[in-house]
């Protein structure tokens, strides 16, 4: 029997942006494995490469060299179209600034990406997910009619409704007050537990990092420490 593919298997990932004398080495050889279902916090000082690593791991940015498999897909070897398809089925992203479409209701924000991906029953699934994040009575509201915490709930519903194997959250509580941020953290952990997804959270919040199973710290484009599984 073979063991299941890890959620992330990265070896010697590098990222260099720009060229010639303007080239900047941003990631300098990242070896990183994440098991299915693991909850990992990614810490590190500003400019250490956290967002760049997330961009590479989510397939938004292509690594300059190295190997990368995400939920069994060989991201490093894929063409643009195949990569876009592979990302869609595997990855959900939650960002600090919510990034909801202002002209769409909460329901449309969650359902439309699934409709575009050809997922059946997109509206029903979106509605169920919005109920699961506590917004069953807000599905027809537009983002401007929702608080920051509510908007982040919509963003979490949008990320999780397609049932991705991995959820990436980049400073998900960074725009929220402490109490609202705490509620959003609880929700993210609860939805992860219900769906079995693997969760990677970029954060400056040491309390949030402490609640993750594993803390990986970046410094100057390299992994400086990794607590591994506790
Ligand atoms: N397009 C680019 N061209 C050149 N350098 C870049 C580019 N994008 C990012 N960088 C540099 O790469 C480094 C890592 O940036 P990154 O945003 O990944 O760090 P970070 O750890 O996420 O920081 P923060 O916590 O402030 O968000 C920084 O020095 C940044 O200036």
Topology:
Blueprint: E1 8-17, E2 24-34, E3 39-43, H1 50-57, E4 65-70, E5 73-74, H2 80-90, E6 91-95, H3 106-116, H4 122-132, H5 148-160, E7 166-170, H6 178-195, E8 198-202, H7 206-210, E9 214-219, E10 222-226
Parallel strand pairs: 3-8, 3-9, 6-7, 7-8
Antiparallel strand pairs: 1-2, 1-4, 4-5, 9-10
Helix pairs in contact: 3-4, 3-5, 4-5, 5-6
Bound molecules: adenosine-5'-triphosphate.
The site of adenosine-5'-triphosphate has 12 residues, from strand 2 and helix 1.
CATH topology, anyone?
Answer: Rossmann fold
Work out the helicity level: 25-40%
What are the secondary-structure elements, in order, as H or E?
EEEHEEHEHHHEHEHEE
Structural class: alpha/beta
Please count the beta strands (DSSP E, at least 2 residues each): 10
Name the poorly predicted regions: none
Give the N-terminus to C-terminus distance in angstroms.
26 Å
Identify the bound ligands.
adenosine-5'-triphosphate
Class in CATH? Alpha Beta
Portion in beta strands: 25-35%
Shape: globular
CATH superfamily: P-loop containing nucleotide triphosphate hydrolases
CATH architecture: 3-Layer(aba) Sandwich
Strand order of the largest sheet: 6-7-8-3-9-10
Rounded mean pLDDT is 92
Structural summary, described in words:
Helices cover 33% and strands 26% of the residues. It has 230 residues and is α/β, with parallel strands linked by helices. It has one domain: P-loop containing nucleotide triphosphate hydrolases (Rossmann fold, 3-Layer(aba) Sandwich). The strands form two sheets. Strands 6-7-8-3-9-10 form a six-stranded mixed beta sheet, with helices on both faces. Strand 9 and strand 10 form a beta hairpin. The two termini are 26 Å apart. The structure holds adenosine-5'-triphosphate. Adenosine-5'-triphosphate is lined by residues 17-18, 24, 26, 44, 46-52. Adenosine-5'-triphosphate (ATP) binds next to strand 2 and helix 1. One of its GO terms (cellular component) is membrane protein complex. GO terms for molecular function: ATP binding; ATP hydrolysis activity; transmembrane transporter activity. Residues 8-230 form the ABC transporter domain. This is ABC transporter ATP-binding protein.
